[in-house]
Structures are given as structure tokens and as C-alpha cells.
Amino acid sequence: MLEQLLAGAIEDAETRQQSVSLASVEAAALSAPAPLDALAFLAPSERVKVIAEIKRSSPSKGALADIVDPQALAREYEAGGASAVSVLTEGRRFGGSLDDLRAVRQAIDIPVLRKDFIGLEYQVFEARAAGADLVLLIVAALDQKTLTRLHALITELGMTALVETHSADELSRAVDLGSRVIGVNARNLTTFELDPDLFGRLAGSIPEGTIRIAESAVKTAADVAHYRRSGADVVLIGEALVTHGSPRETLTEFLSVNP
Ligand SMILES: O=C(O)c1ccccc1NCC(=O)[C@H](O)[C@H](O)COP(=O)(O)O
């Protein structure tokens, strides 16, 4: 599944490149307003932080929410106390787009993450040109050479890479990169099974000074508390926020769980 998602995202980027060249998107990235310092927004604190995700659908669940106004949702997230907003820009299975990211960037004053299946420099320049402050890199999707190259480009452009892992081996590859922000995703990207204890098993091997993010599988405030007790600085939440009636209230409830 991960291979298919990455191949589809790369194919779509190559199609866009036929109308907007690499040189043009690079120029747009370099002239975009400076990115926000995501490290400062996500820095460990006495309270757990949340990256709130804009997610219309997913391969594991199908349609989740009919999000017609991503700007309004992003504002709700900001008002509810989110430290950053994740925008799924993959179109085929998640129903997202770079237009969503551009719109969200204009609506809020907290960092925006481009969450997609990134394998090309072109996609990193696109992210910056659209206003992203953070870009997701999935260790399982990339060989170490490509990961290193994309990580360096994200950093050179002033953005922050969120490096996502699912195992001790992947975590050690993320550490080798010198990642400042490491995520552990509870969702197995092949079977879609959720393992809410994976973060706790790996967190101790994430070096001090790194921002530790627990991704996926939060349904209730108790799940946020579980991740916090396991050492998460930040929790990334999608489905629970887009499917509950009031994302702002849900976020406020989730953020009140600090042990
Ligand atoms: O969500 C999926 O079904 C999915 C399937 C394959 C690759 C990635 C997938 N999701 C991306 C994410 O990592 C989540 O959207 C994110 O961590 C939030 O998860 P959740 O709170 O469980 O919606």
C-alpha cells in the first residue's frame, strides 16, 4: 500500500511538473514568505501539544468528513489550542490538495505541515511555495540516500522535517539523519492495524532534545493521556477531530488531559 501511495503521489507531481517546471516551482519556493519556526511552536512543554489534521478520507476508513471549508476548520483548530495544522495534500485516497494547504496557510498563524507521500525534490519545493512550514518524510517509503537529500532540502528551505517511523530500525535511520522532530506512527501502513503502544516502546530510543510526536490512533482524551505518559511532546490527530461535531471543543478536551 505504501509503495502504491508513494507511486501515485509521484506520478501526480510529475503531471503537475508538465505545466509548472521545476525551475518555476523552485523560484516560487524561494520567493515565498519565510516559514514559521515549527521547532519553537512544537517545543516540549509542561502541557502536551497537538498537531490537528485536515483529513477528508483515508485508505483505511474511506470517507471521513465532507470538509468544504478547510480554512474554517483550520481556524477552529487554532482557536481550540492546536500548535500546528497538518494538511493531507494527497488527492487520490485522502481527497486533499495543495490548494487546501495554500488556503490554510492564509487562514492561521501557526505552522502548517504538508502531509503527503514525498519522494521528489519537486514536491518539497511545491510545499514551500504553497506556504508549508513542515514537511513529512516517511522513512519506510525512502532509501537512506533519498531521505538524506530530501531532509537536507527541507532544512535548506527553512522548513522543518517531521520524520515518521514505525520500528526501531526506522527510528535509528531517522536519528542518523540528525532529525529534530521524529514521529512514531501507530498505523501499520501495510495492514492499517493500529498499535497505540508502539510509541511507548520506541520513545526511549528517541534522543534527548528531539521533539517526540505520537501519530494516529487517538479517539479519546484517555488516548492522548496514554501517549503523554509514554513520553509524547506532541500528538498528531486526524480522524477524531474531523468526525466529532465540534473540533474546537474536542481539542480543548484533549488538551486538558495533562498528567
Ligand atoms: O489514515 C490512513 O488510513 C492511512 C493509510 C495509509 C497511510 C497513511 C494513512 N494516514 C496518514 C496518517 O498518518 C494519519 O492521517 C495521521 O497520523 C492521523 O491519524 P488518525 O488520528 O488515526 O486519523
Structure description:
The chain is α/β, with parallel strands linked by helices and about 260 residues long. The chain has a single domain, classed as TIM Barrel. Helices cover about 45% and strands about 15% of the residues. It contains twelve helices and ten strands. The protein has an eight-stranded parallel beta barrel with strand order 1-4-5-6-7-8-9-10, surrounded by five helices. It has a two-stranded antiparallel ribbon with strand order 2-3. Helix 5 links the parallel strand 4 and strand 5. The longest helix is centred in the first third of the chain and has 18 residues. The radius of gyration is 17 Å and the shape is globular. The protein starts with a helix and ends with a helix. The model has no long low-confidence stretch (mean pLDDT about 95). The structure holds ligand LARABZUK.
